[in-house]
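ok new one. same drill as before - structure tokens go in, u give me an amino acid for every spot. 306 of them this time. try not to just spam alanines like last time pls lmao
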């Protein structure tokens, strides 16, 4: 599935935090790793631009040391252009199966956390992307410390969200991992107008609670229906459903249940002047320290299923 993995590096040490995860993927999928650095034009605002004396070949060779030591095949490539466009074009030309990169978010801005390059790549490549929100540290995480033993596949009842499943299942098979099929039923809260000039007050009626419980039962049936064929294949599949806010529920469950990888589809809206990532995917990437396997689903493949 992932014969070739493209690792996108921008010249910074922080971007190299994706390397241990890419190396683990390559070792389990027997992949060739392509290390790519795109040199953008000077004078253009960009994320994590390297200094004037930056030497791309040396940077990439240093980044590849851990791959060489692990016996993983790799190539180092430097190209010029707009980073997002260059990454997508390279992936198409070289038959890339997985794109791996760190996201670069800026705190304090009223926008999603993902950098514009990561956004462009997921929105335009059609490929799964393994992403992490980099920590503000130059310390590398040892590759051997990152095996995927428990994988969390986040579902919302739609066939669009289910498009992440083949990738999540293949990860589980390759790593001998268990997979948790996770579905959140929206919290039953409405807001009354309240006092004029004041913030709307949250309201939760008995009927809303009962409807949420019924939704939870349907969600349980739904994830069970997906888990059954996996178990028949010999995959250790668990199911979990809960009522709450999707992003918070995903992050909290992952933190409390030894999850190593979160897999999910993004839900973008065409024509909106903002990044493609849905608010749930954005929240998860912003709050979790775990790698996230993201896929922008192909449209027109079904509506809500449960």
């Amino acid at each position: 599935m992932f014969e070739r993995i493209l690792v996108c590096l921008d010249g910074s040490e922080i971007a190299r935090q994706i390397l241990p995860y890419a190396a683990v993927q390559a070792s389990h999928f027997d992949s060739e790793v392509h290390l790519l650095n795109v040199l953008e034009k000077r004078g253009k605002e960009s994320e994590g631009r390297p200094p004037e004396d930056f030497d791309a070949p040396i940077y990439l060779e240093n980044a590849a040391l851990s791959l060489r030591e692990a016996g993983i095949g790799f190539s180092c490539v430097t190209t010029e252009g707009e980073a997002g466009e260059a990454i997508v074009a390279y992936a198409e030309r070289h038959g890339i199966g997985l794109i791996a990169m760190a996201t670069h978010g800026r705190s304090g801005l009223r926008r999603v956390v993902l950098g514009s390059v990561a956004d462009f790549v997921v929105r335009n490549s059609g490929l799964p992307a393994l992403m992490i929100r980099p920590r503000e540290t130059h310390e590398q995480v040892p590759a051997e410390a990152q095996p995927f033993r428990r994988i969390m596949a986040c579902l919302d009842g739609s066939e669009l969200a289910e498009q992440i499943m083949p990738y999540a299942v293949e990860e589980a098979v390759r790593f001998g991992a268990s997979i948790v099929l996770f579905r959140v039923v929206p919290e039953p809260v409405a807001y009354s107008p309240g006092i004029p000039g004041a913030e709307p007050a949250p309201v939760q009626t008995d009927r809303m609670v009962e409807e949420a419980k019924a939704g939870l039962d349907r969600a349980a049936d739904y994830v069970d229906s997906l888990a059954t064929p996996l178990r028949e294949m010999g995959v250790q599949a668990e199911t979990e459903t809960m009522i709450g806010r999707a992003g918070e529920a995903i992050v909290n469950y992952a933190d409390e249940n030894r999850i190593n990888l979160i897999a999910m589809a993004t839900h973008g809206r065409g024509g909106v002047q903002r990044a493609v990532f849905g608010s749930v995917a954005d929240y998860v990437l912003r709050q979790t320290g775990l790698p996230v396997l993201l896929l922008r689903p192909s449209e027109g493949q079904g509506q809500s299923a449960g």
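The CA atoms of residues 177 and 189 lie 36 Å apart. and btw Residues 150-295 form a domain with the Rossmann fold fold (CATH 3.40.50.620).
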